[in-house]
Design goal:
Blueprint lengths: L11 H9 L4 H28 L1 H14 L10
Length: about 80
């Protein structure tokens, strides 16, 4: 996997603190971005699934509105 160059702006004092602590901001940024994308991926897949199945979801909700939930007549609570 190749690397792309990215220009970002960062607080100078924060950058100096990172350098003094021998912390590579690029590594920290890349790790944080990977973590954030990992958190985002399931949400994005869920949105795509819901969009792809929107018609079936509406049909199901309409059926429930008309006929109720299966077994409603058998419930005692």
């Amino acid at each position: 996997m190749g690397k792309a160059e990215l220009k970002i702006e960062i607080d100078e004092a924060l950058l100096e603190q990172a350098r003094a602590a021998h912390i590579d901001p690029a590594t920290v940024f890349e790790r944080a971005l990977r973590e954030r994308l990992a958190q985002h991926a399931p949400v994005q897949r869920a949105r795509e699934w819901a969009a792809a199945n929107a018609e079936a979801i509406r049909d199901h909700q309409d059926r429930i509105a008309v006929h109720g939930v299966f077994g409603d007549d058998l419930r005692t609570w």
